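Milestone M4 deliverable, item 7.
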Amino acid sequence: MNATGDTNQPPPDHTAPLTWAVLLGRWIEFAKSAVALPDDDPGRRMRRCVVDVITLQAVWFALREIESLPADEWALGLDRAQVLIDKHAAMIEETWAGAAMPAALRELIGDARAELAKHVK
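Output delivered:
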């Protein structure tokens, strides 16, 4: 019997090489347990950018684990991270245009960019 209780399947292989998509997907699923937001202007703005926030969090976490990928996956992962950071940071900035963006969102964008910069040569 494996960890899931299934007697017909072998236990999951946690030593198999990971792909960028698996790393990113793992963190997106984790982050989807998002928040209940109030129905005021800041709450509505946050609701509009929840996907962007989740994506930036997922990219940040995935980048922190990028060294667990096979070396031939790194360049692709870094390119995808750059595209995702640029896209979702722009969406957050657009959503908060004309209003004071919460410091936590600015910090999230900065953290994602800083983590990417650690891995780009």
